[in-house]
Specification:
Blueprint (H helix, E strand, L loop, with lengths): L16 H9 L1 H25 L4 H28 L11 H6 L8 H27 L5 H29 L1 H25 L8
Length: 203
């Protein structure tokens, strides 16, 4: 399966090359944070199911997504254990929180924006996993294969959130809002790069 990229992921800007260099130089921190991200993604899907329990069109897709995210979490945990890298709590990076600051208050705008922010987070994960699958090819084939194996599902998660928003709110509403939020996502990553924070999947 060819994984969507560029405009298909709706990202406004590519990942900067120095992030990839930093990630390859610190695979333990990268993988530890990746595991946390997968667990957080599952929690986000479950929270949406409970928050919008009166929206049946969300329930089954998000339930399936949450289960798959937890499977990815377990994959990361397996690799950490195989390498003797301890799983520990990491302080959450500000990427997700800063993106969520763009979610408007009041429905239905809150639901629309939340779905689109989730779509962009999944898109960025997909884009970065593709970069990592190539960057680790020579130095760490196991991690290269891990990230390659997750590409298709990350792209599918992006499209799931995007498609749910489009099916419920309409393309004419979703398209300009997604473009605006993508610009904000790119701005947040630029800010994080300037702040020289520790290695994170979304730093």
């Amino acid at each position: 399966m060819r994984v969507a990229e560029g405009p298909m992921l709706h990202l406004a800007a590519p990942t900067r090359p120095d992030w990839v260099v930093q990630a390859v130089a610190d695979p333990e921190s990268l993988l530890l944070d990746h595991a946390q991200c997968e667990k957080k993604a599952a929690g986000t899907a479950l929270n949406l199911m409970f928050r919008y329990a009166d929206q049946p069109w969300l329930q089954r897709p998000l339930s399936e997504l949450a289960r798959e995210e937890l499977e990815h979490f377990e994959l990361c945990m397996d690799v950490l254990r195989e390498r003797g890298w301890a799983f520990r709590k990491l302080n959450a990076g500000p990427y997700g929180a800063r993106l969520m600051q763009n979610v408007r208050r009041g429905e239905p705008h809150r639901l629309l924006d939340t779905l689109l922010v989730c779509a962009l987070i999944e898109a960025r994960s997909c884009e970065r996993m593709k970069l990592l699958s190539k960057a680790f090819l020579d130095s760490d084939p196991q991690l290269a294969e891990l990230y390659r194996s997750l590409l298709a599902s990350e792209a599918r998660h992006h499209m799931l959130y995007s498609d749910l928003a489009t099916e419920h709110f309409g393309r004419e509403v979703v398209r300009p809002r997604l473009k605006a939020l993508a610009q904000e996502e790119a701005r947040v990553l630029t800010e994080l790069a300037e702040e020289a924070r520790p290695m994170r999947m979304h730093s």
